[in-house]
Amino acid sequence: MRVLRGHQRLLLIPHGGTRPPDAPVVAYATRLRSRSGIALLVTLVVLALLAVFLTEFTFETTLETRSLQNFQASFQARNAVKSLFKAVLVGLEGRPPNRKPLSEVEFFKQLRVFVDFVNDLTKGNYTVLNPPRPIGLPPELISYATPGLAESFPNAIFYTPYVRPIDHLFNLNRLNTVPGTPAEDKIRKEFITLLEDEYQLASTSSEQVFALLHDWIDEDEDRHPLGGNEQGFQDITFGVIAPKNAFFDDLQELLLVIGANLEDQEIKNFEWEQHFTVHAVGELGVSFTQNDPGSPRINVNLAEAEEIQKFIGRMRKSIEDVNSAKYRYVDQAQEIGGVLVPAKLPFDSREEYKNKSDISRKLESSPTTQGLPVVADEFFLYFSRWYDIRLKAEVDGVQAEVRAVVSVEREEDGMVKPNSLTIHEFTLR
Fold first, then answer.
1. CATH class assigned to 170-381
2. Residues of the chain with CATH 1.10.40.60
3. pTM attached to this predicted model
4. 47: left (phi over 0), alpha (psi -120 to 50) or beta
């Protein structure tokens, strides 16, 4: 028999027997196991909270790192596209540093490389007067065309530059004429012909568009007889808006005017910027008004034959005297375009015209256009004044874009006058 001493008591346990249960010891062991379970549960909860905290911390760190990277990429992309914009302005001014002066035609011969690249890539038919929207360029092409930019921004992806001469566009502010006058009749016919030719718009819809735009900018309170609106223009966002009674400042106003005020809702989806502007493009001094809206002219040195034909042709209904010299010119628009810009002649090899005498000499050289009156100045410019510019660059997936409209003043020889370049619109985003 063994004698065990515990808790100040003697316990007699036979050999080979077991110790009888002791209530205080069992209770203590139970409490110990219970505390161990609570501790384990607390530990697991703490570990779970730590895991959540670390995950959140890691996510925030990653997010902050990405935000910083995006900020740096955005900063670099903006610098890249602004540098490209400055390069374009230098090209338009024709005074590149440490180089001989650059004519407008020579500058657009350089830009023609990008137009040809997109045409080859997309099987398109883009031109200098109708350039493609910016698309990404391979690094080797930008290195070839503008090595300085490629070296300064090695991580940037540049897009094809969109630099479009716009003196041939129709200025909507020319619609501000007195109804019933010969001046209004001429402008109306030219405007409606343009809508019918380029947008296949019905005559009634074209007349209504004319009337609505006319009432938006004219200063009187009389509704135009072709279906204008002097009571107010309905807008989905702003409700009824009173006529502006002033010139258009932006093409977006056009969408406001016709957006909910026409039965033919497809009209608002037209690419109006293809043929219209709000700037005094073309030739000034024709209307002899204080705020001269200009008279459109097409740059004969940058246009293609078909573009010349369409531009001259849109005047056909606005000339009342079919025996006039100008009508004879319009009547042979197709032949004129084909002679001035021979088919399949590369852009780099084309003849450059400096004045109406050059035009007359060229037309006289062809049997199809001999004997035409010398009225080239009523249709053509030999150097552009206005340009629409859209540029884009990208760094690490972050894009930056510049949109601008600029104008220049030129000497008689076509060179840009010093400090005459004016930026009329500018957006950096």
1. mainly alpha
2. 170-381
3. 0.82
4. alpha
